[in-house]
Design brief:
The structure is a single chain. With 876 residues, the chain is of the alpha/beta class. It folds into 6 domains: 2-10 and 21-243, P-loop containing nucleotide triphosphate hydrolases (Rossmann fold); 256-416, P-loop containing nucleotide triphosphate hydrolases (Rossmann fold); 430-513 and 741-804, no CATH class; 524-572, no CATH class; 592-646; 654-726 and 819-875, Gyrase A, domain 2. The strands form 6 sheets. It has a 7-stranded parallel beta sheet, sandwiched between helices. Strands 8-13-12-9-11-10 form a 6-stranded parallel beta sheet, with helices on both faces.
């Protein structure tokens, strides 16, 4: 392949690297002939260089031919600002190595780019633009910037999988279509000196400039992903509907070791929610024995707690232990990243902020405290260790309770098999459509027909029909049928006349530019320590504190000393007992694939435990098939044996319902095992039907494994009545009824109204307060609910609640499947081991005088003691 590269590029590569990686061998020939490609390759396999080798080749040939203009030739799009900063540093190396620093310019454009740098780009442009989806949309909407993008030939989308499942990705696909239109409309002569005679299997020879042929897209799109599944769907997402895309899958060239570890030695094995001091001691020991450790938690508060405990346990290493999450100030995060990359830190504790491909140097070990609830996320995290082809990745899943142990066991097996979680692409979000219609009109008037056709070329919007499009136009013209008569000046964004869409007023362009994107505005207060911004916490959290209260941020205990309008001033309070902030982050739901795998494990273990004297054999089977320790296998067997003693194991095609009576309450445990989001949808349908039968309220509690329905004793229902509440018929209507006017839909509407430009997050020169945003969204929600239920933004809010937050389709599928299941209602003398975690979350709320963790552990042991014939070791 070296012969295909420009001599100058080939010479630099030979001096810098010994050989091409498989990822580079698969993708570089495709990029050289300007074909779009999705490269799926493990972390640390040279994906980024694989994309840029072909791009550098094209730039060098233009330099030789004297045809390289000053305009942007390549746009790199990153999900994170930090990734863009990272690449700017990394891509400068080959430019300097080839002596091209005078010929090639790089521009980094994010929300943090200073005004003087933006002006410099507007005046002089650059050849390689590194940016985020939001900044790209801003540039496309302004002629002074967009003019520099019209000759772009390559777009690289890094971490493509991180975009595909959310509105940010749908937003990006429309920006790429707008870029495609921009580049196609400005003819450019053939590039001279392109590589001749290069061909790849399944593709014809190609040379010269892509825009010389009308049947080829103007832009070569290059998608990079370490965890792409299903890969063909992700390729369609990248290039749009009906376009050709090469798919290259590079196999892992390095070993990946994943282990399941439990620090717990107590019996009975602690229930969900337990976190003991042994965990911190074991983590501390790992840090002492390793050069560099990355510790992942699932929420920011846990990162703060773990980081603080480790600093206290390792006072000699405390300066080398840091915390990293999105609420910390950018300068703090960058400092941590640089110190980690430079080998100055022994451990960094983070939530999700270091999952993606930021260059963090040589990390020896990745530790996940509690399971990450998905296989792809686990693979992504483990890949952060040994971040190069000559080093192996090593990950440890730390189980903190018995449910975690089972999940970790299954997760580790699926990670070894690379059974990636399938991505669900957001389908035609109306609020994103509305934003891009305004963006197109902000650049220049555009016809309705061209706008509609452009939007439908983006894969997430391929099924948008004309009636939907027209309703969105009607909303943008005046706010919708319920608002346009009185408030057209307030809500009108566009004017449609003679088939042309234009802005309703010049001020709309200014307002639009400060409201681009799909990231919702949240109310946070800056925390300032010694005149330096330490990070931010939720406004509601600060409001609950008194002057002198202690909390944790950035791994430090701080004392609140003063509050301002948007700031909270603190001082250090080292060594004192903190109040850890409750971060505004929902629990990660278990993915459906992982839930099915847990069900398979339950089925296999149950089958083996039915045989006499089978406990040891079952533990041995777990050790062999799931590669866990004998101690962990025995703990799982003991859990399942205890469950069998008091109840049954929910397996395969069985719908197990457990009934436990506590005082005047009846607790029904439904073991559906379809993941938290799907259980949320399912429980709302069932609860609505139960309420209709009993004529009263029912308390619903959900988790990944099922849901709990709590009634009064006099409202108890027999099995037949419960089974009827799981009927498939009218499930969609019943879920819609259950959601009508709910806080969940209101919460979704706030975000939709911001993205759809009905409730602007910002005004030119200032940011609106969260209270104003919430109040505006609340008023509009009530108006639309009552007077215009078919308003596109309200419809979108319900759709987001139903299909994104709740995963209603999985719930509907379960209702279909469960009709053929065996049904069993078991009345229990005590809460079963499989149901205790969800029961604990209910009783925890009612504990006022007793420490919840201690109380839950006490009740757990009491429950085990009630179970007849439980082994002495379990009840001791």
């Amino acid at each position: 392949m070296r012969k295909q590269l420009h001599p100058r590029l080939a010479e630099w590569f030979e001096g810098a690297y010994q050989s091409f990686t498989q990822a580079q061998e698969l993708s570089v020939p495709v990029v050289l002939v300007r074909k779009s490609i999705l490269l799926a390759s493990p972390t640390g396999s040279g994906k980024t260089l694989a994309a840029f080798l072909g791009i550098f080749d094209a730039l060098l040939r233009k330099i030789d031919a004297g045809t390289l203009s000053s305009s942007v030739q390549c746009i790199y799009v990153s999900p994170l600002r930090a990734l863009a900063y990272d690449l700017q540093k990394n891509i400068s190396a080959p430019i300097l190595g080839m002596g091209l620093e005078k010929e090639l310019r790089i521009h980094l454009r994010t929300g943090d780019t200073p005004p003087n740098e933006r002006v410099k780009f507007r005046d002089k442009s650059a050849h390689i633009l590194m940016t985020t989806p939001e900044s790209l949309a801003v540039m496309l909407a302004q002629e002074s910037y967009a003019a520099h993008l019209a000759e772009c030939e390559f777009v690289v989308v890094d971490e493509l999988h991180s975009f595909a499942a959310n509105k940010r990705g749908a937003d990006l696909t429309l920006s790429l279509e707008r870029l495609e239109r921009l580049c196609s409309r400005r003819p450019v002569g053939d590039a001279k000196g392109a590589p001749e005679g290069i061909s790849i299997s399944g593709f014809p020879q190609a040379s010269g400039d892509r825009r010389g042929s009308s049947d080829l897209p103007a832009i070569c799109r290059i998608g990079l992903s370490a965890t792409a599944a299903p890969i063909d769907l992700l390729a369609k997402f990248l290039v749009g509907d009906g376009r050709e895309c090469r798919i290259a899958e590079a196999q892992p060239e390095k070993k990946s070791l994943v282990e399941v570890f439990s620090p717990i030695r107590r019996k009975p094995y602690p229930p969900a929610g337990y976190t003991g001091v042994r965990l911190y001691a074991e983590l501390a020991q790992l840090i002492r024995t390793k050069r560099s450790v990355l510790v992942f938690t699932n929420v920011r508060s846990a990162a703060e707690q773990v980081g603080l405990q480790l600093k206290e346990l390792l006072p000699d290493l405390a300066p080398q232990i840091e915390i990293h999450h999105a609420s910390l100030d950018r300068s703090v995060r960058l400092e941590v990243e640089d110190r980690l990359k430079n080998g100055e830190l022994r451990a960094v504790v983070c939530s999700t902020s270091l999952e993606l491909g930021i260059d963090i140097g040589a990390v020896d070990l990745v530790v996940m405290v509690a399971t990450p609830k998905g296989v792809s996320r686990a693979i992504q995290r483990i890949g952060r260790s040994g971040h190069s082809l000559d080093r192996n990745s090593h990950g440890i899943l730390v189980a903190t309770n018995i449910n975690d142990l089972v999940e970790a066991t299954v997760t580790a097996k699926l990670v070894r098999e690379r059974a990636l979680d399938p991505i669900r692409i957001q389908q035609k979000p109306y609020d994103v459509v509305a934003q891009h219609i305004v963006g197109l009109a902000a650049a220049a008037p555009i016809s309705q027909e061209e706008t509609f056709a452009l939007i439908r070329r983006a894969y997430p919007f391929r099924e948008l029909d004309r009636a939907e499009f027209d309703r969105i136009l009607q909303y943008l013209e005046g706010g919708g049928a319920s608002l346009e008569k009185q408030y057209v000046d307030v809500f009108g964004k566009i004017r449609v006349k003679n088939g042309l869409i234009s802005l309703a007023h010049s001020r709309i362009a200014r307002e639009f530019l400060v409201n681009i994107g799909t990231i919702h505005s949240e109310s946070f207060i800056d925390v300032v320590l010694r005149r330096r911004r330490l990070g931010s916490v939720e406004e509601n959290f600060i409001k609950q504190l008194n002057i002198g209260d202690l909390f944790v941020l950035g791994g430090r205990v701080v004392r609140l000393i003063e509050t301002g309008v948007q700031e909270a001033y603190v001082e250090r309070a080292d060594g004192q007992l903190p109040t850890v902030p409750r971060w505004n982050a929902a629990k990660m739901p278990l993915t459906s694939g992982l839930a099915r795998a847990v069900r398979r494990l339950r089925t296999d273990v149950e089958k083996r435990l039915r045989k006499k004297g089978s406990d040891t054999a079952t533990a041995d089977w777990l050790v062999e098939n799931y590669q866990i320790s004998t101690v962990n296998a025995q703990a799982i067997v003991e859990l399942f044996r205890a469950q069998l003693t008091i109840s049954e194991i929910p397996i395969g095609r069985k719908m197990l319902i457990e009934l436990y009576r506590d005082g005047d309450r009846a607790h029904y445990f439904f073991h559906s095992l379809i993941g938290r989001s799907a259980n949320d949808a399912l429980s709302r349908i069932v609860a609505l039907r139960v309420k209709n039968r009993i004529g009263g309220n029912a308390l619903v509690t959900i988790d990944d494994y099922g849901f709990l329905l709590t009634l009064r004793r006099f409202q108890e229902l027999p099995l037949d009545a419960l089974r009827q509440c799981f009927a498939r018929a009218n499930a969609e209507n019943d879920l819609a009824r259950a959601l009508r006017g709910s806080e969940l839909v209101k919460w979704q509407f706030r975000g939709v109204a911001q993205t759809g430009l009905m409730v602007p997050r910002n005004l030119p020169g200032r940011q609106r307060k969260q209270k104003q945003l919430s109040w505006s969204a609340e008023v509009l929600f009530r108006v639309l609910e009552q007077h215009e239920p078919e308003h596109p933004l309200l419809v979108e809010a319900y759709r987001q609640a139903t299909h994104t937050f709740l995963e209603a389709d999985s719930a509907y599928q379960f209702l279909d499947d469960v009709q053929g299941f065996e049904w069993k209602l078991v009345e229990l003398p005590a809460v079963s081991p499989f149901s205790f975690a969800i029961y604990a979350s209910v009783i925890k709320e009612s504990m006022m005088l007793e420490d919840p963790a201690s109380a839950i552990e006490r009740i757990y042991r009491e429950m085990y003691a009630k179970v007849e014939s439980v082994t002495p070791s379990l009840a001791s």
